[in-house]
Amino acid sequence: MNKRSILMTSLAIAAFGLVACGGANTEGDTMERKVDEAMAEMARDKEAALEELRDLRVRMETRLNEIGNELEDPALTDEQRAELADEQDALEHQVDRVDAVTNEVESALQETWSDVKRTTNEVTRDIKEWLERQAEKVDEATDADHDHDGK
């Protein structure tokens, strides 16, 4: 009986160990799923941020090209040329900001993503507001509604 008791105890311990390991795998699987979901969410957020930054950059590059064409006009006064050059400098500064934030987004890790995301949202909002102010200045200067916003 002594051997039988030892054998039964050993089997009971082995069965308990298998059950305990099975529970750990379920917890491990759950944790792995949560990590995968967080990574997928971050990837979606990064792609959305990058798309918005690319759109802003295209808008600004388009305007920079327009300014370049306008600056070639020999009929421009010195004052008009200076205004266009100032706008060009300001736009180039905004493009640099977009490029810097784009690099941050592209290289962001899970650990830094929340800070990068917050900074990206702030810079994007600032640049959009700046572009709106520029459009309003053009509307005021020309007494026209070039941006079709009703203002």
* Arithmetic mean pLDDT: 85
Output the number of helix runs. Answer: 3
Kindly estimate the percentage of residues that lie in beta strands according to DSSP: under 5%
- Which sheet architecture does the biggest sheet show? none
Structure summary, number of beta strands: 0
Q: Gap between N and C termini, in Å? A: 97 Å
Identify low-pLDDT runs.
Answer: none
Query: From the alpha-carbon coordinates, what is the Rg to the nearest angstrom?
Result: 30 Å
Helix content: over 70%
What are the secondary-structure elements, in order, as H or E? HHH
Query: What structural category characterises the helix and strand content?
Result: mainly alpha
Broad shape: rod-shaped
What does this structure look like?
The protein is mostly helical and 151 residues long. Helix content is 86%, strand content 0%. It has helices at 2-71, 78-107, 113-142. The longest helix is centred in the N-terminal third of the chain and has 70 residues, at 2-71. The mean pLDDT is 85.
What key attributes describe this structure?
151 residues; mainly alpha; 3 helices; rod-shaped
What would you say about this model in short?
The protein is an all-alpha fold and 151 residues long. Helix content is 86%, strand content 0%.
Task: Give the topology, please.
Blueprint: H1 2-71, H2 78-107, H3 113-142
